[in-house]
Amino acid sequence: MKRVDDFRLKFGKRELVPIVIGGMGVDISTAELALEAARLGGIGHISDALIHDVSDRRFDTEFVKTKTKFYKANIDNSDKSIIKFDLDRLAEATKLHVGRTMEAKRGEGMVFVNCMEKLTMNSPRDTLQVRLNSALDAGIDGITLSAGLHLGSFGLMAEHPRFHDAKLGIIVSSVRALQLFLRKNARLNRLPDFVVIEGPLAGGHLGFGLDWAKYDLATIVAEVAAYLKAEQLDIPLIAAGGIFTGGDAVSFLELGAAGVQVATRFTVASECGLPGKVQQEYFKASEEDIIVNTVSPTGYPMRMLRNTPAIGSGIRPNCEAYGYLLDGAGHCAYITAYNEQLALHPDGKNISVVDKTCLCTHMRNYNCWTCGSSTYRLKDTTLRLPDGSYMPLSAEHIFHDYQFSLGQQIALPEVVPTEGVPA
User: Fold this and answer.
1) Does residue 239 belong to any structural domain of this protein?
2) Does the residue 414 lie in any domain?
3) Element (DSSP H or E) covering residue 144
4) What is the mean pLDDT of each run of 10 residues along the chain (423 residues)?
5) How many CB atoms within 10 Å of residue 28?
6) Residue numbers of the domain that contains 357
7) What whole-number distance in Å separates Cα of residue 116 and Cα of residue 334?
8) Is the CB of residue 123 less than 8 Å from the CB of residue 34?
9) Nearest alpha carbon to residue 393 among 248, 276, 260
10) DSSP state of 290
11) Any idea what the CATH number is for the domain that residue 289 is in?
C-alpha cells in the first residue's frame, strides 16, 4: 500500500511533496499556514481576497479607514457606482502581504497566491491586473487563478518580467473550461504550469450548478488527463475537493494526478485564520449541517454550514469600506436584494435578506462559514477536551498525516488532556 510520500509533484527538475493547501480567504489560509506547507516541502496558498483589510490587520496600515473616509458621504446612497479602489494602494497592500510572506519563507516548498476573478472591485480588468502583477513584483512563487475562467488573465501579466518564471495555474471543474482557457491563450505561447481540477465536494464557491451531486472528481480528473494526453500537453493536474485522508490522496495520485489540493482539515489548524470559536463550530458540525445554497452575490453556488450567521442577515451594504464584489457598473446582487427589503422596511429595522448575503462584510468578520463536504468528519481527527471543546491541531501534524498515513488511517494528536477526555 502506497503513501502520499511515495509520490512527488514535479515542476521541471524541482520536486515537491504533492500536497497543496488551498487558498482560503479572507486570511483563513494565513501566511503562517502557507509558510508551514512550504517548510514541509509542499505548496501553501495565501489569498488576495480583501487584501486591504488583511494588510491593515497584519501591518497596521489604514487602507480600509482611508477608503471609508473618502467615500463616507455615499454610505446612505444605494448607488455605489462612484466607489473605486485606488490602484496604487491596491498595489501597495498586495506587495506588503505577499512580500512579507515571501521574506519569511523557509524550506524547499513554495508559496502561491490564490487570485479570484470574481473580485471585480468596480473595475474588473484594472484591479485584476494590479493584483496579479503586484504579486509577481513581490516575488510570489506562483499564482492560482480561481473563481472564474480567467480567459484574459495571462494576457494581463504577459509583459511582466516574471511571466515565464513564476508558476501560473488555473482552477477548472470540467474539460470544457480548460479547453476554452487554452484556446483563448494560445497566442501567448504560455501554457499553465499546473491545472487544479476542483470537484463538487469542495468548500466555498463551486464551479457547478445546483446539480453538483451529479458530478464526480475522479471522472473529471480522468477526462482532463485523457484530453491532455490526446493533445500531447504535459501539464501537472492537481485534484481538489473532498480529499480527506492520505488514502484518498493516493487514489488520485495513482489515477494520474500530480498532486492534491486540500483545505478542510486545515481549517482547524492552529495556524489557520479562523477564530477559535468558529473552529469549534466546524468540529461540532454534523453531515446534515452542511448545505449548498445560492446566497453568494457572485452567482456561484456555495457550500457552508447551515447555521452560518451570514444567512438571512440584513446588514447595510458596506461598499464604502469594502466593495470587492461590485461589478464594472457598481452593482452587486446583495445591494439589489437589500434595497428591495429596505423598500418594505423604510425604517431600516428588522431587515432580513434571505436570497443573498453581503459576502465582503461577513467574510471579513468570519461570519460566513464556508466549508467542505467532509467538515463533519473533523471531530474524528482530534481529541475532545474536558470542557467539551475539541483540540485544534498543528498544520505540521495535519500535513504529515496526509503525507505518511496508510489507507483511511487518521493520526490523532499525541498530547492527551491531563484531566481526561469526557465520554
Assistant:
1) yes
2) no
3) strand 142-146
4) 97 96 96 98 98 98 98 95 98 98 98 97 98 98 96 97 98 97 95 98 95 97 97 97 98 97 98 98 98 96 97 96 96 96 88 96 97 98 97 98 97 69 40
5) 24
6) 4-404
7) 18
8) no
9) 276
10) E
11) 3.20.20.70
